[in-house]
Amino acid sequence: MRRLRILVLVHETLVPPASLEGVGEQAAAEYRTEFDVVSCLRESGHDVRPIGIGDSLTELRAAIQDWQPQVCFNLLEEFGGIVTYDQHVVAYLELLRQPYTGCNPRGMMLSRDKALSKQILAYHRIPTPHFAVFRRGGEFRIPKTLRFPLFVKSATDDASLGISQASIVEDAARLAERVEFIHAHTQSDALVEEYVDGREFYVGVMGNERIRTLPPWEFIFGELKGGRAGIATRKAKWDRDYQKRHGITSGKALNLPDGLADRLDRLARRIYRALHMTGYARIDFRVREDGTPFVLEANANPNLERAEDFADSALGAGIDYPDLLQRLIALGRGYKAEWREN
Question: Is the pTM of the predicted complex or chain greater than 0.90?
Answer without folding.
Answer: yes
